[in-house]
Please model this.
Amino acid sequence: MSGNVKEHRLLCIVCPEGCELAVTEKDGGFTFTGRACRRGQEYARREITDPQRLLTSTVRLRGGAVPMLPVKTASPVPKGRLLEVMDRIAILEAVAPVKLGQLIAEDVTGTGIPLLACRTVGKADPS
Amino acid sequence: MAEKTDLLIIGAGAVGTALARELSRLSLRILVVDRLHDVGGDASKSNSAIIHTGFDAPPGTLESRLVTQANPMYDRLAADLDIPFRRVGAILVALSEEEEAELPHILEKALANGVPDVERLEAAAIRGMEPAVNPAVRCGLLVPRESIIDPFLLVVAQAEVAASNGVEFSTGREVTGLQRHPGGFLVATSRGDIEASFVVNAAGMFTDRLSAQLGIKDFTVHPRRGQFHVLDRAAPVGVQRIILPVPTKTTKGRLLAPTVHGNWIMGPTAEELEDRTTHGTTQEGLAEVVRDVRRLVPGADPSWAITQYDGLRPVRTPDGYHLRSFPGIPGYLELSGIRSTGVTASVAVARYASDLLQQMGLPQAARTGPVTRRKGISCFREAEPAARAALVEGDPLYASVICRCETVTEAEILQAIRRTPGARDVDGIKRRVRAGLGRCQGGFCGSRIPAILARELGCTLHEVSKKGPGSEILNGGTKSQRRAAS
Amino acid sequence: MKRAPIRCDVAVIGAGPAGLAAAVEAANEGAQNVLLLERDDHLGGILQQCIHSGFGLHLFGEDLTGPEYAERFIDRLSSTPVRPMLHTMVVELRPDRSILAVSRRGGLQEILPSAVVLAMGCRERTRGAIAVPGSRPAGVMSAGQAQRFINIEGILPGREIVVLGSGDIGMIMARRLHLEGCMVRAVVEAGSCIGGLSRNLVQCIQDFGIPLYLSHTVSEIHGQSRVEGVHVAPIASDGTLERGRAFRLDCDTLLLSVGLIPENELSRQAGIVLDRPTGGPAVDQRFQTSIPGIFAAGNVVQVFDLVDHVSACGTAAGAAAARYAMGKRAQVRESAVCAGAGVRSLTPQRVAGNEGMVPFFLRARAQTRKAKVRLIDGGDAVIQEWRFPIVRPPEMIRVEVDAGNLPQNGAYSFQITGESS
Model:
């Protein structure tokens, strides 16, 4: 069984050094050439096998003091699914008043990650 | 069914609006059309903002006569129109022997042009009057009555007076056809036909195409572009007057001038072009401006620039002011070749044209009680404390500041929109009350002004434009529309 | 009908992160009347449109979004007696510290504070300031303006975007607009490396395959009414523009992220001495400006990269303003500290007295590896040295100095040496 050999180059963002990591992935194992500290290796492994990102966006807010509500996923989302999750967020609407941390959608990824409000917004001033 | 009018003026730049105001004392139906979205014209609003004395005009020409006639009119006119105007004076700076040798000729020309108060200055006097001028200055000329104005306010103020007297302004309306017709002319436009007994061609860059429609093909017009830097009010330029180089045959040269709003402008270049409507600055042109101006005033520093602009001078071939009627085409008046001194001469051109129109049989019955003066939009920023309190008392929106850099209030912006002819786009507001013209160039007010326009004009935010249809500020749609579309 | 002037202990101008922190701390320090003047319709300043995360890692040990970070301070504020005045613009600040503010609801309002904290933040450098040639169509705006349109109003500025400048705001907006379905054609950067944090290079640019052109700039804007495209040209190593190699990118929007400038209209008006390298008031370690009783904090002093540091400055300034207002004004001698070789800018520029730890915030002139940051005295003797594996201009350097090591009336400077890359 000759394994799949894949070469990766990535910019490490763990510390200000910003090392360019050279990683060879073979049979599920990783070898590093050149500079790669322990934290950098952990970062590289995660980024290669399962990169995740926190997603922040806005949803329309009905009846609020401001028209848009900033929101975020409660935990990071697989990087490859960001645009898909954005599509799911696009059809959502929130209703004022909203408290920071409030649940806007229970599952916005299809894998059980909720969408939370990032701001407390009261109802629109009638005046 | 064509619209009918007694007199149609094509072009709402300096000449067209001055004429509109001049003729609005008559009891006539007058319509002014312009292809652009707002009054102000094209070249009329992108120039060096100088009211010339005419000292350096070609002597013995109609241009020279009209400019020297016009210059003294501005003190009274600016007061009547309540617009800023300052007789700052100009100094021509000679830095070389050749330039110095030119000065006697320029002095002679000034006298021939009826500008007797031009005087020679020696280097010491120049350094005393303007310490920021290049210390290598040899000598120069002082032109005491060269002045500065806001050319857009000059036009809009005259348009407001004309409108108060019943003149109608129809902008965003391009003339596409002009032909003779029983009783006068049939004019096709992008927004419907017009029947007019008299037609005045004040169309600047397009005067040749309009006259050609009537078979007059003895001239052409092409653009000569001039580029400018505008410097921040806080720039340490330190000059009080207009500083000019010794002129050449094609251009008055790159100058440095204060503006009536406290900024400085540097420019213009002179590039012969073909495309009559394409505006744009170039790296080479702007660099040339900086180089040439720094020769006169070494401390002029482009790092203090807040914006750049360019103007397209409508250059006539054969050159010169041509204000003419045609025996074979009764009722048609062409005002072509007006450039370089066009803004200055406009008010004298208006009188001259009015006389010509009288000779051409334009009815002279007077309107009763015509408006001749106009009060500008009261400016919070320049008001004294007591005046500010009164403004706020009269209108609480004078305490709602929208433009931070220029301290322009919501009250002023609303007046700019509600007057006739009023602002209908972001640039129109900028030109009337200076909102968005300051050092942050709309950074703070940029989201607020479109909202105010949308509310006042009864349109959506997406329909608010910078300078008319096609220049909408926001054309991405709402975010949900975008996600749905992609 | 003239409104009576409001007297107060402390007036804070601006309710962004610096102003919020200052107002909270001034109240905590015991100032009786603290006014918080804000021109916008909300508290939190620019944070409310910074919906991305990365805020509060130092101060709270959490990765918060801008609005969440702002709310931490808004909540603290609400448990103080501080009076926020929204929709209120300060139009005059005078050397005697008196203020003229205007608001639609309140009209003209004179304010007589015992102490003032300036927290007006900064504005963005414009197209005109860098003289990008070409036409002047609709569709050219700063990245921050676009951020406001999309995150506060919910409207997209355009559909096909080019971003000039790879500062953090530019990169973050590139990601934001891409996620919202726009076509982000490129981020164009005049420098040879990005102008912001590496984290943003990865998570805003590389994650989405957005083309990044380093050592390039926009050489011309096209389109008479609306942007139709831009020309992008490489910059040669000697700094000249290689126009012959310029290429066109079609787009309908050009966003500019080409620098932030501390917003010091009011400071200039009051005659406060400004520091050229920072663009903001020259301050001491308590953030007092050249006018006693007027303090300044946050981006109005120097453009910071971490809001956590902005809050720390605001807190220090608020406390100092409160103490000043309550009559606690020690007359101490001062030392001057300036930016030496390798240092683009630093605050504070003065150290008053010789007690306590003084945090300094520096920006390096150039990327430097194996960097040595040194505090030296007038005779070039090294007082203190710090080492960093790497320092980069976009990342502020924070070091602490014991004021006891700085005999008063001295003149000191910071320098940075190392291997430039």
